[in-house]
Amino acid sequence: MSSKTKFKSTISGLEFPEKEKVYGHQIRQTVLNLIQNDYPEFKDNDCISNSELNIYREKYISKYLQTEVGELSELQQKVLKSLSNGKSLVSKVEYEKDNRTFGQKVADKVADFGGSWTFIISFFVFILIWIGSNVYILLNKGFDPYPFILLNLILSCLAALQAPIIMMSQNRQEEKDRARAKKDYMINLKSELEIRLIDDKLDHLIQHQQQELIEIQKVQIEMMNDILERIKK
């Protein structure tokens, strides 16, 4: 076979039959990029053999599959990290530090006791003992005879003191509810943003996969056409 029927590959310097000659401008851009990564001096007017071109086509397909597996793993890691951050935020809400002052703690204790059945029953028993001791034991001649002016004074003072203490506790509870509602809003907002972010990533990944799969199909069709041309020859 004469040298006229052969050509020299630009990337390997080896000689191949003229029928296997492929110019750079005939190669698909995605595959051409791989060739130029290994051989930056390769231009559109340079040529390689069909067998060398198939090697880079296979590299492109293999690289795509490896990239997709890596992207899926990275996405899973980001989702797990996002869920971990959300858990820490929730635990912060559930187990917030108790930074109440001594007066606020006393107000909460008084409010809790004043709104319980223990207080109601014990106070009712106290009133019965007070009235019974003055009417039946001391025959209405004791320290607080009927109409029990001292008892009324005690009840009035108790009500006057208990009301603002309960209001203090209610104000603290309202502040706590507002803070909890704010944190709940932050958690909901964070969850919504995470869902949107994951949705956008999935859309981008699906769109990217579709484009890459179309490109792979085109490369495979070119390889099949080359095989068919060899069979015909």
TrEMBL record:
<keyword id="KW-0472">Membrane</keyword>
<feature type="transmembrane region" description="Helical">
    <location>
        <begin position="117"/>
        <end position="139"/>
    </location>
</feature>
<keyword id="KW-1133">Transmembrane helix</keyword>
<protein>
    <submittedName>
        <fullName>DUF1003 domain-containing protein</fullName>
    </submittedName>
</protein>
<feature type="transmembrane region" description="Helical">
    <location>
        <begin position="145"/>
        <end position="168"/>
    </location>
</feature>
<dbReference type="Pfam" id="PF06210">
    <property type="entry name" value="DUF1003"/>
</dbReference>
<keyword id="KW-0812">Transmembrane</keyword>
<dbReference type="InterPro" id="IPR010406">
    <property type="entry name" value="DUF1003"/>
</dbReference>
